[in-house]
């Protein structure tokens, strides 16, 4: 009797009980989502100078919404502002307008995005298999993935893929036209690549399978969704197609292949000699993301073919897997999602890098597919084991024990997986270690420019709200109009920092309007240049190494003591006006 009750409680379909069971599982799903999000918030607010890694690129410039005088004529800030999708920028601007600071907003935003994603994930799972526990498992697996990787926690445009694209899939399956169109529009405004994936799904739904061959769909609703949906995609994507940014065009594939940044060992590694890595697992270039089976419970999706075989056998499914008969035709949307994203993956490879990185088109799609298939498979295993145990058993026996233990193991692994992961959640927050340095620059005029190749330069725009000439974090080599200027700046900076010629140093400071120069304490030594891997790929580095090997003293060296206006154990900040005076004497 206990097994029968447990079986009914866990695997009863929506129609078998009142809405209270669905509400219970949905509430449980949202509760876990909130717990994970709160753990993320705990990390986000663990210190005064904490920011998500990628937010240092995508959020720092938004402080212009708070103070328009920040980052004047800053071409790095201008670039990231121009690259930000319209909806993303508008959302942060609205938040700033009502008094929510961008750096605060980017920390709390994942909390709300996770709850929205959870609701739609739960609801989609029920459209595929109307068992509330399936929705719980799917949403739990999705949340664990979102908080083990840094997509959601970044609060950058890619974080919005989860709630918005899941909303699109849900309203598409529910045949709710206006909400579906709204989701497509939002996708185009927040993360344009997946608006194209949505368009592909709408087109594929025009095809059907009948009598062993493909045919056009007989459902007129599919044509309505397709025509109106493609119209929305066209409208939201048109501004991107017509954009004539000062930072265009993108590098061609031929040009990128000659750049060390895209080499297998480069900062933006893309081109790999091994075709398997390039097409399948390479970051950016490969179809399958390395985190596809994170958490490992996603591996349950690999049992999906076995479940299909069992389901195809009416006797097996009725005897051991009764819930499998409840799988709805809505599950075909996962195949359509795979085909649409695969088509865009190939299109992105063919037009490199005009449609950005090819791997972005399949990364999220495959994760969604794996989440839903895993949830259905795990539900079917629990259903099968409990159904097997309750039949032909009049008293508690070995079958009951096996079924209960199996169910308990699955429940433990699915629910408690985060406790087995070190430092969960892993969302990539970075903590600034030099508060005195940030405060020093905050006290300087808002229009200053800081020259530095030191690693700490990555944090200055975010924590000090002051412009840097270059920094490693902003070395994004996709658009020629931006990166060619960036390369010129970094090469000029390296040359000026290590040249023994005072005239070259003076010209650099005057040309770029440098106000402060920040150096690591060992920056002017040969060992520093040889070991600092980031700058070894730039054209001016060999020249700097040669000069140091010849024993020539950089013209900047005397200023390390005479012009220091701030210093700690790691860096020294020099006054550029003092450097000019020193080199003229």
Key structural traits:
27 helices, 5-stranded mixed beta sheet, mainly alpha
Write the layout of secondary structure elements.
Elements: H1 2-11, H2 19-44, E1 50-52, H3 55-58, H4 75-83, H5 86-97, H6 102-128, H7 132-148, H8 151-154, H9 161-173, H10 177-190, H11 193-204, E2 207-210, E3 213-216, H12 220-242, H13 253-257, H14 275-281, H15 304-312, H16 314-320, H17 332-350, H18 359-390, H19 398-416, E4 429-431, H20 435-442, E5 449-451, H21 460-463, E6 467-468, H22 480-498, H23 502-512, E7 516-520, H24 526-531, H25 540-549, H26 559-562, E8 564-567, E9 571-575, H27 576-584
Parallel strand pairs: 5-6, 5-7
Antiparallel strand pairs: 1-4, 2-3, 7-9, 8-9
Task: Give an overview of the whole structure.
The chain is mainly α. 58% of the residues lie in helices and 6% in strands. It contains 27 helices and nine strands. The strands form three sheets. Strands 6-5-7-9-8 form a five-stranded mixed β-sheet. Strands 1-4 form a two-stranded antiparallel ribbon. The protein has a two-stranded antiparallel sheet with strand order 2-3. Strand 5 (449-451), helix 21 and strand 6 form a beta-alpha-beta unit. Helix 10 (177-190) runs parallel beside helix 12 (220-242), helix 11 crosses helix 17 and helix 17 runs antiparallel to helix 18 (359-390). The mean pLDDT is 91.
């Amino acid at each position: 009797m206990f097994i029968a009750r447990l079986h009914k409680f866990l695997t009863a379909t929506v129609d078998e009980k009142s809405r209270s069971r669905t509400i219970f599982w949905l509430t449980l799903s949202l509760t876990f989502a909130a717990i994970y999000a709160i753990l993320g918030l705990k990390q986000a607010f663990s210190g005064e100078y904490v920011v998500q890694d990628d937010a240092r690129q995508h959020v720092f410039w938004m402080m212009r919404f708070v103070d328009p005088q920040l980052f004047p004529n800053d071409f790095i800030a201008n670039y990231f502002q121009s690259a930000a999708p319209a909806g993303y920028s508008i959302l942060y601007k609205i938040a700033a307008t009502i008094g929510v600071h961008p750096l605060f907003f980017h920390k709390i935003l994942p909390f709300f995005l996770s709850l929205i994603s959870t609701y739609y994930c739960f609801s989609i799972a029920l459209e595929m298999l109307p068992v509330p526990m399936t929705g719980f498992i799917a949403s739990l697996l999705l949340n664990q993935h979102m908080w083990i990787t840094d997509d959601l926690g970044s609060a950058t445009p890619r974080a919005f893929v989860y709630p918005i694209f899941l909303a699109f899939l849900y309203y598409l399956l529910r045949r709710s036209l206006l909400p579906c169109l709204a989701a497509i529009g939002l996708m185009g405004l927040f993360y344009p690549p997946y608006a194209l994936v949505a368009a592909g799904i709408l087109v594929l739904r025009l095809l059907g399978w009948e009598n062993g061959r493909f045919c056009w769909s007989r459902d007129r609703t599919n044509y309505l969704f397709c025509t109106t949906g493609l119209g929305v995609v066209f409208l939201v994507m048109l501004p991107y197609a017509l954009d004539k940014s000062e930072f265009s065009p993108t590098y061609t594939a031929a040009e990128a292949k000659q750049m060390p940044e895209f080499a297998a060992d480069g900062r933006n590694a893309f081109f790999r000699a091994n075709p398997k890595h390039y097409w399948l697992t390479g970051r950016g270039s490969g179809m399958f993301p390395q985190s596809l089976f994170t958490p490992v419970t996603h591996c349950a999706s690999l049992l999906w073919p076995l479940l299909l075989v069992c389901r195809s056998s009416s006797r097996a499914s009725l005897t051991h897997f009764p819930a499998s008969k409840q799988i709805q035709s809505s599950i075909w949307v996962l195949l359509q999602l795979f085909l649409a994203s695969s088509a865009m993956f190939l299109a992105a490879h063919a037009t490199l890098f005009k449609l950005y990185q090819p791997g972005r088109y399949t990364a999220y799609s495959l994760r969604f597919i794996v989440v839903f298939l895993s949830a259905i498979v795990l539900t079917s295993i629990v259903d099968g084991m409990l159904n097997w145990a309750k039949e032909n058993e009049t008293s508690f026996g070995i079958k009951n024990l096996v079924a209960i233990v199996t169910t308990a193991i699955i429940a433990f692994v699915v629910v408690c997986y985060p406790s087995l992961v070190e430092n969960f959640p892993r969302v990539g927050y970075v903590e600034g270690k030099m508060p005195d340095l940030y405060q020093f620059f905050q006290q300087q005029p808002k229009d200053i420019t800081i020259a530095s190749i030191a690693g700490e330069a990555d944090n200055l725009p975010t924590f000090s709200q002051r412009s840097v000439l270059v920094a490693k974090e902003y070395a994004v080599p996709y658009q020629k109009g931006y990166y060619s200027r960036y390369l010129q700046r970094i090469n000029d900076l390296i040359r000026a920092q290590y040249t023994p010629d005072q005239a070259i140093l003076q010209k650099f400071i005057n040309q770029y309007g440098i106000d402060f120069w920040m150096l690591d304490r060992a920056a002017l030594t040969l060992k520093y240049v040889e070991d600092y891997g980031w700058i070894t790929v730039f054209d001016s580095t060999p020249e700097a190494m040669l000069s140091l090997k010849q024993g020539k003293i950089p013209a900047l060296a005397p200023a390390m003591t005479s012009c220091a206006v701030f210093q700690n154990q790691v860096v020294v900040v020099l006054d550029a006006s003092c450097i000019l005076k020193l080199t003229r004497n």
